[in-house]
Fold these 3 entries.
Entry 1:
Amino acid sequence: MQESKSALIFANLNKDDAGNAALVIKKGLLERGWQADILGFRSSIGERPDFSRYALLVSLGGDGTLLYAASFAVPLGLPILPINLGTLGFIAANKIDTWAATFDGWCSGSIEVSKRLMLRVRAYRENELLYNGIALNDIVVSSEGNARMIRMCLYVNNDRFGHYRADGLIVSTPTGSTAYNLAAGGPAVHPEISAIIINPICPFTLASRPLVIPGKLPVEIVIDETRKSGALLTVDGHDMTPLKKGDIAKIEKYEKHALLVVPPGNAFFSALRTKLGWSGDNDA
């Protein structure tokens, strides 16, 4: 933890009562000897503040807010305290009535940050860089149109793995494994494991199955054919870049981890039980 005691409350004002919640959190931080600023936004933050001034970023909203906050915080090594104001909030594990206990534990050293693998993606058209960004959840290469398959070639660790005819490919972190990947039939992976999940979306053949590889291995997706629809690169659900035949998405482990201040213990398994209903056989 940095010596500075200054926090930025990153508040998604599209969430009900987010403005009042931000004031409550600011009051709680001030009572603990911290300085706090509030940055409220709806679609984007507008003028970017100097994030390096802060020792902590408080993400106030839901999982989408956290993903947006991570794009600013992770390159600076800035820890994020995610507080959920939404309905699911799988990653944003703190609540408005429990965040203080997690924060106090982090300040005292009894709670360590949860280190989460991040992915970097660069998209190229011949030698031109189309996109360069990072993802906490997932990177998706998909058909731009509805119900239109595309053909892609997948490379893992510079070795051609094979071709896919599908609606797309999801390349997910363990943190993002419980999002789009899970909905597309992929596995739930513990968020602190260093792994990459590659999952086809509605593949043409039943032989195509999700693949879990070590987090250190680079991945490339080459667009082979788009037919009547173009292709689209989507990063953490908000950054979108159109792709066409011959374009390449190069994906690798980012050099820094996302540092999340979340409740300790078995929060991941508890979330599977309570939020996704994975209760098992209760009669056993």
Note: Residues 213 and 257 are 18 Å apart (CA to CA).
Entry 2:
Amino acid sequence: MSAQSSTHSAPLRWISRLGEATVHGVTELGFASVLLGQSLFWLLLGRQRRQPVRLSAMAAQAMEIGILALPIVSVLALTIGAMLAIQGIYTLRMFGAESRVTLGVALSVTREFSPLITGILVAGRSGSALAARLGTMKISQEVDALTVMGINPVRYLVAPALVATVVMLPLLTLWADLVALLGAGLYASVELGISLSAFAQDTLAALHPNDLLHGLGKALLFAVLIVMVGVVNGAMVTGGAEGVGRMTTRSVVHGIAAIVITDMLFAFVLTR
């Protein structure tokens, strides 16, 4: 009898956990929407209320998110560009069309790889740092201290990070486009004997402004996702230092998953 009851209770437990996870996910999504709305409110109306979002805070966040990330973005973009050229030439050589590698590399870099890789990098580097910072401030009651002092935490902590990420991630993506195409051009010049100037001309002929806008539009969405995921996870920290580490890891996982899923949906919608 007990074995039969445990057999029947297993699906019920699974359904209960699924329901709890769904409710938790919807709650986090609502919380993120509220934070985004409040951030936009302070950005637009903060000056009228004599509580503007500080330019110095936005500049500091932009330096951390964008300028300091240039070396690792450049290395990864150069590697990915060369990798795409290697795979493209190897595949097209079967059909005797390796000279057409420029078209495939140019579209792949600008529409997919640059925004995706840059977004994942920023999510792992800056999104996790934002979650850890907010989580540490929460457990040390610094967020409560800001509220007591009359400083809105969203205006002080979230809005500057949102502006900096929305500005810097598309710029990093554009830089990744250039470096990745340079990497592809360098490999093509060695493998196929194509000069860099000829490769650049073929690339410009293959690309359309919509291809660049496609990638930059993704970067804007990824920027909002990175900040919101980091802030929500940082605000939910409990349990001291162990909780900070747990939610920081969760922020990276959720941020990368959100970027990849959004990338797929974005590509599906815009290619219909």
Note: The chain has a mean pLDDT of 87.
Entry 3:
Amino acid sequence: MEQELALFYFLLLGFGVLMYVILDGFDLGLGVLYPWFDGEGERDTVMRSISHVWDGNETWLVFGGVVLFAAFPAAYAHLLSSLYVPLVLMLVGLILRGVAFEYRFKSVRSKRVWDAAFFGGSTLAAMCQGMVLGAVVQGGEMVGEMFVLHWVTPFTIFTGLSVLAAYALLASCYLVLKTRGDLLVRAARLGRRLVVAMMVSLVIVSLWMLYSNEWVRTRWLEGLNALYLLPMPVLSAVFGFWLYRALDGNECGARPFWLAVGLFVMGFVGLVAGLFPFLLPHQVTLWELHAPESSLWFALPGVLIFLPLVLAYTLWGYRIFAGKVEDFEEGY
């Protein structure tokens, strides 16, 4: 039963990370795209489109951290100590965004300052998240009893830039869903370019990992594994093609956004498939790092109570604020 509980928490951690990447991804992406929108009116609309959800989206970051701490405390200690600098920088970026939201709608002369804080904080947070992802994927080494990850390498810088493009793609699809007119057309045009950038990034990262990492190469290419795992890259290509066609600048509802989500899900599943069952990549598995069985049982009632509540208020919030952002809406 202990191993089944550990696997449950591992899947729960993956679910929390995926929810955060999708939900906070598009609002970080709006900050990354912010300079590409002209005039105070367009920028007001961009910020109003997420003013009701941005802080709730970050709940999933806390949720993932709590699951990692409760179920895999050794991994929590090793990963956070190795990645202390980029994680602190990420939090600084998130703080800048939060302050920009609160102050921009009330400011007159200092709006440019808060515009810069929104763009800079979003870009810094997204870049740091991408570099953390790259550091985890490329793995590290054991130095004594400490697991060390190198977070500034060519690979982590590339994954950071890739995450910037991916979040910006989600954001452009979200704006197609939430806006009208010229802003929708501009978002769709940017989205088409970003689809190409994301697909190229996925190919480069995949080939880079296959070339540089023996474990990933074995997992994907040995025996019948390539046949079993083939649907993931095929579906990614299909989603990318459909998404490019859907971003034609016309009113097309939620279709582009859900296609972009599908593309993210395929990328995430492929990542997990290449790394499972390692929690500290290529060194220690989740079976070796989970908390004692008594601790896993102790945390389970909290998970079963609060996860449905978080899902419920997230879905309810998006349901209440469904529809287009209208020009007559004011404030935050």
Note: The mean pLDDT is 85.
